[in-house]
Amino acid sequence: MIKIAIASGKGGTGKTFVATNIFYSLIRNNVDAVLTDCDAEAPNDAAFFETVPACSLDVSQPVPVIDLDKCTFCGRCYEYCNYNAIFILPQQKVIKVFDELCHGCGACSVACGYGAIAEKPVNLGTVTTFSVNGQSTLIEARTSIGTMSPVAVIKAAIRQTGEKARVAILDAPPGTSCPFIQTVAPSDYVILVTEPTPFGLSDLKQSVSTLRTTGKPFGVVINRSGLGNNDVHVWLKESNIPLLMEIPFEEETARVYSTGNLLAAMNVKYMDAFFNLAVRIMQTVNS
Amino acid sequence: MKQVAVISGKGGTGKSSISAAFATLNHPVVIADCDVDAANLYLLFNPSHEEEQVYAGSHKAVIDYNLCTACGLCIDHCRFDAISLRERRITIDPIACDGCYLCSRICPENAITMAPEDRSRLYSGSFRNGRMVYGRLAPGEENSGKLVSLVREKARQLSEKHKLETIILDGPPGIGCPVISTITGADKIIIVTEPTVSGLHDLERAAGIAEKSGRKPYVIINKWDLNRIMADKICDWCRENDIPVAGMLPFDRLVVQAMLQGKAVTELAPDSDTGIELKKIWNKILTDYE
């Protein structure tokens, strides 16, 4: 399996747009592909396809539960907890767990010498597998509202993606921090989507410097070409980064996207362009 | 002190351009760029660097191979799959390491230390209409609400010190920890959306996080004329959920032109439709305080 991550530092540059269109053009060309929406805080890929949910799994994290009958208020769990998730007032015999601060590391359970800490699962989100047109698969990571970090849900979605299909398209969350890294880490190639504006360029530079630390091969798609200036083009050339594709800014393109439709389904020129892009990347990875 | 947070759920809906416009409209303000993953406002405001703070967000486990006996106890205890045995050596995956310290605490040989990740920074200074604070998360660092809290604390200090009553918080996309940090304790929350299927879906989730924090958000529909039917749908959804639509902004190339010149659209074209609407929205939000 070849895994291609679609990412960008800046939000709203068109990751979902590129990911859904590549996926569509692959399955229309009978390539065995799976699309995994790793933007767990704002997952949108499923809205662009006719989907039927096939299965759904809950992602949870263990959180400590303190047995007040056994607890001696020694404070060792409080000392072990590096996330300030345990609050203790030994004199008043008060101890409290803040579930939303807990990372589920289990340090408090190890710390407790009195068997006073058990664990309960707390829901973080769900990973839903959808069937698209009865033959392809779309997997969606979705955090529950109030979940602090999407990382565990993203990891579960990537596990669910498996290794069976020929290509997996991973639609990454925006940014350059942990959730982005988690999506990029298992990938063979990363497509960075940017727009030709100062904001787009600044965030692209940050994504590139993060990606370079991982050593992953990558290239750039410029979306909304013609909207801003040429600085992104110039910088890519200077930095020797491949420009994979340019999508001109057209109000029609924006309108097609806004209604939940796919440009590749409306316009065969784009269908071919996205398909060729995917094929080129698969060849790059294989060589 | 008035703290107004601008968030969105979906990225790229125009949070920073709108925050920048608000920051230049009236009396001087403190503006805090809370999108520490992808800070952009400095490009428009070119703030002076008066202060720089090191932010040590997390710590990563480091093995001392002179002491390590490769007993594997740390592997059994790590819940982040960050430790593995490779060629008979205990190896830490720094990306997976969550910095919980458990391995360093249980190692019988004391072979594990925790090294601070201290490449992130917090900057503050002045810009043409007040003070500015922004954070820069080092590449690949934990997506941290902690740095956002620090940015906000600095903004609060500057607001008191310079008697600047209004703080504008330009938030990150999403609905996770850094967003929760941005809106916690803010008095007003503005959600910027766009008239797309994704825009509406992410608005619903952003509104969910705002209401969880106990406040009714305002909604701004940006680029509303790109899809009038979707814009209507969003208005309907807001009405059904009793969420006020503070205003609707047209798609306007002037916003990009302003960005190219390092300005807010309200500075480049204050009398344009977009400029006038932004002024109306900002005045409405400020008068709602009274």
Short description:
The complex is a heterodimer of chains A (287) and B (290). Chain A has ten helices and eleven strands.
What does this protein structure show overall?
The complex is a heterodimer of chains A (287) and B (290). Chain A folds into 2 domains: 2-59 and 125-286, P-loop containing nucleotide triphosphate hydrolases (Rossmann fold), CATH 3.40.50.300; 68-115, Alpha-Beta Plaits, CATH 3.30.70.20. Helix content of chain A is 34%, strand content 29%. Chain A has 10 helices and 11 strands. Chain A has a 9-stranded mixed sheet with strand order 3-6-7-2-8-1-9-10-11, sandwiched between helices. In chain A, strand 6 and strand 7 form a beta hairpin. With 290 residues, chain B is an alpha/beta fold. Chain B has 2 domains: 2-56 and 119-287, Rossmann fold (3-Layer(aba) Sandwich), CATH 3.40.50; 59-116, 2-Layer Sandwich (Alpha-Beta Plaits). In chain B, 37% of the residues lie in helices and 23% in strands. Chain B is built from 11 helices and 13 strands. A 9-stranded mixed sheet of chain B has the order 3-8-9-2-10-1-11-12-13, with helices on both faces. In chain B, helix 8 (228-240) links the parallel strand 12 and strand 13. In chain B, helix 1 crosses helix 11 and helix 5 packs parallel to helix 6 (177-183). The mean pLDDT of chain B is 95. At the A-B interface, helix 3, helix 5, helix 6 and helix 8 of A face helix 4, helix 6, helix 7 and helix 9 of B.
Distance between the termini of chain B: 13 Å
How many strands, what sense, and barrel or not for the largest sheet of chain A?
Answer: 9 strands, mixed
Runs of chain B in which pLDDT lies below 50 for 5 or more consecutive residues are none
Major protein interface: A-B, 59 and 61 residues
Enumerate the spans of chain A where pLDDT stays under 50 for 5 or more consecutive residues: none
Helix/strand order of chain A, N-terminal first:
EHEEHEEHEEHEHEHEHEHHH
Number of helices of chain B: 11
Overall structural class of chain B, as computed from helix and strand content, comes to alpha/beta
Q: What general form of chain B does the structure show?
A: elongated
Oligomer: heterodimer
Per the CATH scheme, the topology name of the largest domain in chain B is Rossmann fold
- Helix-strand sequence of chain B: EHEHEEHEEHEEEHEHEHEHEHHH
Number of separate strands of chain A: 11
CATH level 1 name of the largest domain in chain A: Alpha Beta
Task: Tell me the number of strands of chain B.
Answer: 13
